[in-house]
Specification:
The chain has 501 residues and is mainly alpha-helical. It is built from 20 helices and 2 strands. Among the domains are: 287 residues, no CATH class; 50 residues, no CATH class.
Length: 501
């Protein structure tokens, strides 16, 4: 695959980055989902009361539990909820007005039983009924939309821009970097996982930012920024300790002033770690034990410490090749990363140290989660626990992709986008055929968007507009027109170039 040696776009590099960010944010937002995951409950509590307690939502999710004397809480780290609380708090005045009007109208109508919800999942139907009875259904729906569009979509778009700059440094071409960054955004499970609040994907973004800070020469105080990124990974999930340690080791290896770099790295990591300890102290009375320590017994909790045991061969194989959520079946493109040490030795692209770091972090995540028995729960959520490795694998995979013959590379990219886009559109599938179901739904049943699918399942609840289903084609057309305008050279910076690395 021949790569151009210089930028070849009618925009400055900064202009490309801005357009890339908007493109990713818009497409991610169009494909957002209304899943009310456990992290949303804490985000609502923080936005509503500046509290870590989720007492008002007790019993609405299996991952919410009550610790005597401390109230109800979620069982995972608070980082994703803290980030999600920001856009929710900003939108809360409007959300409160809409929720109050809807609930007042329901009370005036005298209706006491919820309307039907035609979901294929019994738990989804039961959840909708309970949320309707408590008056939270509209609040949950609006909050999930706001958090996905105001938190997940812009952060994934920002990560795509960071990927663009890293790829530009690797290949020396704006055009190549742009196409590969778009492939990262829409040809990997990043597209699918951005649909709703998820700490694993956010940890991947933080890991990418930390790596970029250390590898990019122009960054000021790289050790400090990398420390913040590593600490945020831990605040998001305890598996983030792998990133915290990996970036710390890389920081020391890269730096000539190792003592100074170590101090800077620790200074950056300390605030998010202290915030995690503060959360655990306020929520459970102990700053150092994780939330999972206090969870009531559930399936697989008897294995090891709260379900975390030594690596298991069956789990290791499932994480990569399970037909429902295996990483390399979900995105075969990422398998190319394993060949990176053998096919491209150009040091200016991605030196051996960096390739080794990225692949070593992937192996660490793989081994760690092969001992976490809760990874079996991915059967109904799709690839999740390995999400932090998406950017780690894509960079070395891009090296291999660039060495493939152009027709082969193009076919691999098209197939990856088709799979990723199908997963982003069809989320509530039965999983009987696993990862084959989303593309089969697309090719046999047509396009769909998650929010429109939810509205169509409500029948005539909000009028007859969605009674016969809802087509996403008008939204696709509108988004296409907007993006055409954004990328049209007549509205751009024709003739200007920013060739700074």
């Amino acid at each position: 695959m021949t790569l151009p040696s210089s930028p070849d776009l009618p925009f400055s590099t900064r202009g490309v980055a801005i357009r890339l960010f908007f493109t990713c944010w818009l497409i991610f937002s169009v494909h957002l989902a209304t899943n009310t995951v456990r992290e949303i409950y804490l985000a609502l509590a923080i936005g509503d009361h500046l509290s870590f307690r989720v007492d008002e939502y007790g019993g609405m999710h299996p991952d919410l539990f009550e610790k005597p004397g401390h109230g109800w809480h979620i069982g995972n780290n608070p980082g994703a909820s803290i980030l999600g609380a920001v856009p929710y708090a900003l939108a809360r005045p409007a959300i409160d007005i809409l929720v109050e009007r809807v609930n007042r109208a329901r009370a005036a109508s005298g209706r006491s039983e919820p309307p039907g919800y035609a979901s294929p999942w019994p738990m989804a139907r039961a959840f909708y009924q309970e949320a309707w009875r408590r008056g939270y259904d509209i609040k949950f729906g609006l909050a999930s939309v706001v958090i996905a569009a105001g938190c997940m979509a812009p952060l994934s778009a920002l990560a795509s821009v960071v990927m663009f700059y890293l790829l530009r440094r690797m290949f020396g071409s704006d055009r190549t970097a742009l196409w590969l960054a778009l492939l990262y955004a829409f040809g990997t499970p990043v597209f699918f996982r951005t649909g709703y609040l998820n700490q694993n994907m956010l940890a991947g973004h933080a890991a990418l930012l930390g790596f970029a800070a250390l590898w990019t020469p122009a960054v000021r105080r790289p050790a400090l920024l990398a420390g913040v990124a590593g600490g945020v990974c831990l605040l998001l999930d305890y598996s983030g300790a792998l990133v915290l340690a990996g970036l710390g080791a890389y920081c020391l290896l890269k730096s000539r002033r190792k003592a100074h770099a170590a101090v800077q790295y620790l200074l950056g990591a300390t605030p998010p770690v202290l915030l995690l300890w503060f959360y655990q102290w306020r929520s459970f009375g102990n700053p150092f034990l994780p939330g999972q320590h206090w969870m009531p017994p559930v399936e697989w909790i008897e294995l090891g410490y709260q379900g975390v045991s030594g690596p298991r061969i069956d789990l290791a194989a499932s994480l990569l090749f399970d037909y429902r959520y295996g990483l390399f079946l979900t995105c075969p493109l990422l398998m190319l990363a394993l060949a990176a040490p053998f096919v491209d030795r150009a040091p200016r692209r991605l030196p051996a140290m960096e390739v080794t770091l990225l692949l070593a972090l992937f192996v660490l995540f793989w081994v760690f989660f092969s001992g976490v028995n809760y990874t079996r729960l991915q059967f109904n959520t799709g690839v999740r626990y390995m999400a932090p490795t998406f950017p780690l694998l894509f960079l070395p995979a891009a090296l291999v992709l660039a060495r493939l013959p152009r027709p082969v590379a193009f076919a691999a990219a098209v197939l990856s986008v088709a799979q990723a886009w199908s997963m982003a559109m069809y989320r509530d599938v039965e999983r009987g055929l696993g990862l084959l179901e989303p593309p089969l739904h697309v090719f046999l049943g047509g396009f769909q968007l998650p929010v429109l699918a939810v509205l169509s399942r409500m029948g005539t609840t909000y009028g007859d507009y969605f009674a016969n289903g809802a087509s996403p084609l008008p939204l696709f057309a509108l988004a296409a027109v907007v993006l055409w305008g954004v990328w049209s050279p007549r509205f751009g910076e024709a003739g200007t170039k920013d060739r700074q690395p």
